[in-house]
C-alpha cells in the first residue's frame, strides 16, 4: 500500500468516527488540493450544515462531498425541485446535470439568491435531490470565452478528474528529503520589462511562478531550459502559479505542455478564462514558425487549471501552501503567498500590483500572516516615475475627448485587452452620461469587447459599486449605446476614414503587431486626431518610439508620417507608481526582511531597491536573470 493510500485509509477512519450513524461513506479520495468524500447519503450530509466544516477543521483539508450516482433523483424531477426551491429573482438561465460527479450546475443572473443565506438554499437542493449544486453567474454580456471554457471543461471532465486525482496524490505524497531550505531562481523579468518567470524550490518541491514573453521580442523567452526549471524534465515541476493573464506573465504557459509538463496551474477563475482568450489571440497573431505552440496546448493549459479564490489556503506540494490575494492590477490578478514547511519560511510574489483603489478594483492586499521575502515588481520604480492621480487623469482624458468633438477628430488609445480598457470605458460612459463630453461613437476591437464580457461574468472580483451596477441592466456601464465592437481590418479602415468625432480603443498597448496598427495607418496623417498612451511603453517597441517623438513609423513595410498629436496620460496604468510601490512596502504587515526588485528596467529596479534600503532599512536586491537566492 502506498503512503497516500495509507493516508487516505487513516482519513477514512477519522471520517467514519465523526459522521453520525446512518451516513454511509463509500469512498474517499484526493482531487487536486481537495479531499472528496463520496456518500450514499448526501441528503443527510446536507441536513447537518456544520458537518463538512467540522470535518475540514479536524482534518485540516478542503472538503467536497459528492453523492454516489445511483442515489440521485432523476434529472427531470430534480430540475423541477430546484426551480421550486430557487427564488424567481435569481433568474436561473440553465441547469446542467453531471452524473459522473453528482454535481448540478445552476447558472443564474443572481447567483447569491441560488446560494441563499449561509448556503441554505444549496443545502436544501441537496436534501431534496441528492445532487451537489455548483453555481455559475450568467454574464450581463454573452462571453464566448467563458462559455467555451465552461463547455470544454464539462466535456473533458473525465480527463480532468484523472488529472485532479493524480495531482492530489502528488500533493499528499510523503516528503522525499529531510533537508530544509528555500530558493528562488530568476528565469526572466530581471532588469527588464516582460518575460516574468521565477522558480521557488525546496528540497521536496519545485514551483514555477508565471511564464511570460517580452513585449515586442517573441524570440526572447524565459530561461526554461536550465536545470532549475524544465532542463531536467518538465515533470520535475510540481506546479505552476499564475499571478495574472497578461502576456508578459502568461504567454508561454502553454509552451510548458508542449515540452512535457502535465501538472496543475493555480490561478483565479477569471485568470483561467483570460489565459485562454489572450494566448489563443497571441498565437493567432503570430505567423508560421514564430508560433511557439498550437491551440491544443492552450486547451491543455486550461484543462489543467485549478482555480482558487482570494484568501483560500491551499496545499500545492507536500511542503508548500499557497494563498492568493487581490493585486488590484487587472481582473483576477493575484499577489501569491507561499508558506513553506511547518512555519519554515514565507515568500510573496507581487506579480503586477496597483496599490490604490481604481475605478474597477480594490487596491492590492499587503497583509499576510508572515512574509520573510517579497519579490516585488518595479515597472514604475524609477525615481521620477510618479503618475498623475486618477482625477487629473480623467480630466485630461475629458479634455482630449472635447477636442475631438470640436475638431471631428479621433482619439486613438492603444491598450491591452484586459484592465485599462475596462477602466476607460467606465470613465468614458460617465463623462458622456453627465454631458461633460458630447456623445460620440466609441469603437472597441473585438478582443477588448470580449475581455469586457469576461468582466461581467465575474463581478464579485470587482469593487462593490461596480458589481452592483453590472447586475442592473439599466446601470451597467459596459452596455452604453455608444460602445461598438469592431471585428476586421476593412471595418477599421472604413471607420477611421469617417469625418466624425470618435474614440477608438485598440490592442495592443505598445503598438506591437495587432489591430492598432491598422487604425494608426489610417489616422496618422490627420493633425485633428490624437494618439493617447495609457500603458507603459517598453524599450524597443513601436509605441516607445512614437512616444519618444518619432516623425514617421514603418507600418506593413511603408513609411507613414505621424501628423496626429501624441500624448501620454499615465494615471490609468494598472501598475503602482514609485510612490505606490513604496507605500505597498511601507504599510505591508508584516514588513519583509528581504525584497527582490524585478520586472522593471535596470534603472527602475536599482532606484527602487536603493530607496527601500535607505528609507526602510530592508535588505534589497536587484537580481540578474539566472540568479539563485537561498533563504534558509
Question: Topology, please?
Answer:
Layout: H1 3-18, E1 25-31, E2 34-39, H2 42-47, H3 51-59, E3 62-67, H4 75-85, E4 92-98, E5 103-108, H5 111-115, H6 120-129, E6 132-137, H7 144-155, H8 157-171, E7 182-188, E8 197-202, E9 206-209, E10 239-241, H9 247-250, H10 253-258, E11 265-267, H11 269-284, H12 295-303, E12 305-307, E13 314-317, E14 320-326, E15 334-340, E16 345-349, E17 373-377, H13 390-407, E18 410-414, H14 420-433, E19 442-445, H15 446-457, H16 464-470, E20 483-486, H17 489-496, E21 502-506, H18 515-523, E22 530-533, H19 542-547, E23 552-555, E24 558-561, E25 565-568, H20 578-586, E26 594-598, H21 602-616, E27 619-621, E28 628-630
Parallel strand pairs: 2-3, 5-6, 9-10, 10-11, 11-12, 16-17, 17-26, 18-21, 18-22, 19-20, 19-21, 22-25, 26-27
Antiparallel strand pairs: 1-2, 4-5, 7-8, 7-28, 8-9, 13-14, 14-15, 15-16, 23-24
Helix pairs in contact: 4-6, 11-12, 11-15, 17-18, 20-21
Question: What this model shows, in words?
Answer:
The chain is of the alpha/beta class and 632 residues long. It folds into 4 domains: 3-69, GMP Synthetase, Chain A, domain 3, CATH 3.30.300; 73-138, K homology (KH) domain (GMP Synthetase, Chain A, domain 3), CATH 3.30.300; 174-384 and 575-630, 4-Layer Sandwich (Metallo-beta-lactamase, Chain A), CATH 3.60.15; 390-572, Rossmann fold (3-Layer(aba) Sandwich), CATH 3.40.50. Helix content is 34%, strand content 22%. The protein is built from 21 helices and 28 strands. The strands form 6 sheets. It has a 7-stranded mixed beta sheet with strand order 12-11-10-9-8-7-28. Strands 13-14-15-16-17-26-27 form a 7-stranded mixed beta sheet, covered by helices on one side. Strands 20-19-21-18-22-25 form a 6-stranded parallel beta sheet. Strand 23 and strand 24 (558-561) form a beta hairpin. Helix 11 packs antiparallel against helix 15. The longest helix has 18 residues, at 390-407. The radius of gyration is 25 Å and the shape is globular.
